[in-house]
Write a structure and sequence with these properties.
heterodimer; A: two-stranded antiparallel ribbon; B: Amidase signature (AS) enzymes; 16 helices; 11 strands; about 40% helix
């Protein structure tokens, strides 16, 4: 049962998530039920309330822009799904001639 | 040598510092115990025996050189969403199943500097999303008190290792209750400090406005020691607060002059009779120990779960966008880059992670952002304001950590029923407050293998860790619940 509140197929596209038809069905029902529960928030008088922007107020911090040692390139590339020499190898994003 | 493992972190460190025992001996005993006990429990996804031995050698050298290491030779379990250099760090997800961390989380490096021996990386609900550890893609963790029941979650492996004696303490992470609920289920102490107290650098992010690292221990005194070792500003995490960490020092043993708030909206009538009696007794014990009980109101706390299940998934959908199969982890190759992203994420994430990514993406999407995400952040402001009002009348708030003891596997098939397990822990997380669970009694439901522990949740105002830990220590020493029973693997061992 799909929910009127959420178009799972569209949202999955935005989230870059391939879903099977069975998943679309199942997640649609489960997320529709969750959205019914969160509707309770409409009972709260929030018109004049500021949205929480930071949990601990006044914690915005800056620091000097200093050159620091970074992670070793070879170590990081060992975690790459595919590499080519000192680079990450990724699928092409521009059409090839 | 095995018996040394049943001492507190403080005592083990003292024994190693005074060279009554070497860190190398502790490491061998800890490794043997993990091998002996963990096959029944499944707390660990990866055992780090070589690392424990290597660190033990260094600790012994440093002790010999006269260094006073606060956690010298203490065997520790680390939740597998914390990066440890050269160690597989999976988040219990197929998308990171083979990923080896290239650096240490700050919390981990501070503990290593203090002398810990990491014995392994522990199981969790995938990316810390869940309340039973059943959402792990990589293993099953059982509750040491009853192997037919879940350990709680998401830090299920960490609490199970401490409860079964395979680590002296563990690190967990808590986003909506992921340290406190499993600590309650496994009869150990679980402490989530104030948001910003402990660096999350190297903690793989789930919901960044909520995630906090914290200790899981067998006593409040050990929780205080580990917390003090980890806390403090870190230039690598801009959300850490540059504010002195007050040492807990000698923790007091009574509650005279402490006002404990009992939340009107968390009436115990809602609970099962046996569970209700344990909490009613806990409140009476607080009073017996000298506390003044005052009723406080948290009228918006009932909206916590709804608020959380918009904010946390929204942040999750953003944080987990980085898992696209390009730079680390799994890649499922397809004809073009978009199809590769989609196939990689489909194969790499489990159902609960997918649900949260979907609901979060929806809540942040054009046309829904104000109705869902912004409204939830406004509700969050109201919840935090209610706590501020309550703390004008009390020093600490007491309530159940969970509505029930540990449940059986597959008992919560509907996602929302699982979400409700964090009913008592979520509001505190939304407000960023320091909060912990301490053992407060036992119930034996029909069909249980034996008594199952319950946890009392104590919560303090922002940055009031010292007063919170002091109150928890006084309650713990005044009731001795943690010493009344021991889970089966420990039953024969002196505690």
């Amino acid at each position: 049962m799909a929910s009127a509140d959420i178009d799972v197929e569209y949202v999955a596209k935005l989230a870059r998530l391939a879903l099977t038809p069975a998943e679309i069905e199942r997640f649609g029902a489960q997320l529709g039920a969750l959205l019914d529960h969160v509707k309770a928030l409409e009972e709260l008088p929030v018109a004049d309330v500021a949205a929480t922007a930071a949990v601990i107020p006044g914690t915005g911090v800056g620091r000097e822009d200093l050159v620091q040692p970074s992670l070793d390139r070879e170590t990081v590339l060992q975690g790459a799904p595919q590499r080519q020499g000192p680079y990450f190898r990724v699928p092409s994003i521009l059409g090839e001639a | 040598m095995d018996a040394v493992l049943d001492r507190s972190a403080r005592e083990i460190a003292e024994a190693v510092r005074t060279r009554a025992v070497s860190a190398a001996e502790v490491a061998e005993a800890a490794i043997a115990r993990v091998r002996e006990r963990d096959p029944q429990i499944g707390a660990f996804l990866t055992r780090t025996e070589d690392l424990a031995r290597e660190r033990a050698r260094r600790v012994d050298e440093r002790v010999a050189a006269g260094e006073a290491l606060p956690l010298a030779g203490v065997p520790v379990a680390l939740k597998d969403n914390l990066c440890v250099t050269g160690t597989r760090t999976t988040c219990a997800s197929k998308i990171l199943e083979q990923w080896v961390a290239p650096y240490d989380a700050t919390a981990v490096s501070k503990l290593l500097e203090a002398g810990i021996l990491p014995v392994g990386k522990t199981n969790l609900d995938e990316f810390a999303m869940g309340s039973s550890c059943e959402n792990s893609a990589l293993g099953v963790t059982r509750n040491p008190w009853d192997l037919g029941r879940v350990p709680g979650g998401s830090s299920g492996g960490s609490v199970a290792s401490v409860a079964s004696g395979t680590a002296t303490f563990a690190l967990g992470s808590d986003t909506g209750g992921s340290i406190r609920e499993p600590a309650a289920f496994c009869g150990v102490v679980g402490f989530k400090p104030t948001y910003g107290r402990i660096s999350r650098y190297g903690l793989i992010a789930f919901a960044s406005s909520l995630d906090q690292i914290g200790p899981i221990t067998t006593s409040v005194a050990d929780a205080a020691l580990v917390y003090e070792t980890m806390a403090g500003f870190d230039p690598c995490d801009a959300t850490t607060v540059d504010r002195p960490v007050e040492p807990a020092g000698t923790l007091r043993e009574d509650l005279r002059g402490v006002r404990v708030g009992i939340v009107k909206e968390f009436a115990l009538d809602a609970l099962d009779a046996a569970v209700r009696e344990v909490y009613a007794q806990a409140y009476r014990d607080l009073e017996r120990l000298g506390a003044e009980l005052v009723e406080v109101e948290l009228p918006t706390a009932d909206y916590g779960v709804a608020t959380y299940y918009l904010i946390a998934p929204a942040e999750c959908s953003s944080n987990l966008a980085r898992f696209d199969g390009m730079r680390y982890g799994l890649r499922v190759e397809r004809a073009d880059v978009a199809a590769t992203y989609e196939a990689t994420r489909a194969a790499g994430f489990g159902d609960e992670v997918k649900r949260r990514i979907l609901i979060g993406t929806h809540a942040l999407s054009s046309g829904y952002y104000d109705a869902y995400y912004v409204r939830a952040q406004k509700a969050r402001t109201l919840i935090a304001a209610d706590f501020a009002k309550a703390f004008a009348r009390c020093d600490v708030i007491a309530c159940p950590a969970a509505a029930s003891p540990a449940f059986e596997f597959n008992a919560k098939s509907d996602p929302y029923s699982m979400y409700l397990m964090d009913y008592y822990t979520i509001p505190m997380s939304l407000a960023g407050l320091p909060s912990l669970s301490v053992p407060c009694g036992y119930v034996t439901p029909p069909g249980a293998a034996g008594p199952l522990p319950l946890g009392l949740e104590l919560t303090g105002p922002l940055f009031a860790e010292r007063a919170l830990l002091a109150a928890a220590h006084a309650y713990e020493t005044g009731t001795q619940h943690a010493k009344k029973h021991a889970p089966p693997p420990l039953a024969g061992a002196a505690r």
